[in-house]
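Sample A.
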Amino acid sequence: MDNKKRTYILLTGSVVWAIIIFIFCTMPPGDIPRIRIPHMDKIVHFGFFFIQSVWLSLLFSFQTKSRYVRIILFSTLLAFVYGGLIEILQDRFFNRTGDVYDLIADLSGGFTGAITYPAILRLYDMIFKRNR
């Protein structure tokens, strides 16, 4: 796959995933299905931002050829900023409550996604290079 196509796919995936996060995080509380697992909302926040950070880390890795540490810092910072923005918007404009623990889950998911993206990249390479 050429670099332009890969960049388009990763950028599109990242933007679409950011929109999905925004939609789910700003839905009215009554529209969200209730699952009786303790701290399920924190698990969901972690998962949302884990996936977002993997998308971004892969994009930065292919586009910038930056060092691993720089990619981790940038992806984690974006998770923190986007998660914080959503928490502020929930509190001020939507019928939701902004929660610092949601932001911690966002940040944790973003960091975990950023540090695991090399393993995900190796797995991708193993799967798709074997099938050639």
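Sample B.
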Amino acid sequence: MNKTIVQILAAISLCCGVLLFCSCAKVDLVEDDPSSDSDSDSDSDSDSDSDTDSDSDTDADTDSDTDADTDSDTDTDSDTDPPVCDSPPDDECFSSTVLIEYEDTGTWNGTECVYGSSNTICPYECDTGECIDDPCLGIVCDAPPPDECISNVLWSYYSPGTCSGGTCSYPHTETTCNSPPADTCVGNTAWNYSASGTCVVDQCEYSHTATVCPYVCSLGTCQGCSMGSNVAPSATGTISSGSTDQVTYGPGRLNDGGLQSGCGFCWIDTGTSYGGGAYFRYTWSTSQTLWGMWVDTEPSYGSGCAYTANRGLAGGDVQWWNGSSWVTDGTVTGMTNDWAYYEFTSPVTTTSIRIYNAYAMSQVNALIYEWRVFTCS
């Protein structure tokens, strides 16, 4: 084999052994021919140039691969560095009094940042991720609301109140509208309030009756009067039936001013028990306001005038005329002597009074020595 060809093969073998990828040029082996020496030299020169180019490519590939490997290593190092965990979630309220507070720095678990936390018990309240100050700080509960009606019950508020959660609440009393004010006098008119009332807006209201007092109003009550003068002498006396002798035994003796000692009297037909309609009567020409009366009658033990004993007036109805009918003020029974002063239940204003259904003690025909009637004073 030609020496030149052997050298070429050795060079190719070395190239293929060093490089991972190489393209070995096709070599036509020809036998040693003297006549081709000149051509062979020429080819040898050409191949030498080609080898030089191949080396240049190999260097370029090597540089390119080296750069790529370097970039790849840089990226790998960047991916393996963990992120910085310095953005914790906002603190939050777990409940109205428990605050969750997150640590400022967390740790990377390969997927996300994880932050530690702790719970804080708020002394007053947790709101929008923080413990707030006492909402009652600086609040003075000294302005109770106005009174109000709730289901016809009056709620009356008073201070001081108490603060909770920033809001004042006040104690109160509840009043059922069944405690009317005390009866009172408005001028000379008595105001008497009803026992039950109605709660209106912010107070109990009670209706009342107004009575004009004929005399004096005191503490919501029309007061009676004291005994005044005797007006019987100005009245005209009449009787149901009996003596009509005005001089000795008739109605004129009722108010003549003479008492039992004078032995002059007026008598009427009666029995000895209540009823029957017998009466003694006084009538005035003008209205009289009367306090009461007193009757001088026959005592049970005799009069001393030689008349039959026990004809005294034992009882009857005390009545007054209201302008259209008789009104019974009271009934007297069981008298055995003079009538004590009889006071009307309340002063009456009238033109006539009478003792009706009169009856005697134990003998018929009751009698009166003197009948006095007194005005209010």
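B remarks: Residues 13-77 have pLDDT under 50 and may be disordered. Residues 37-79 form the longest helix (43 residues).
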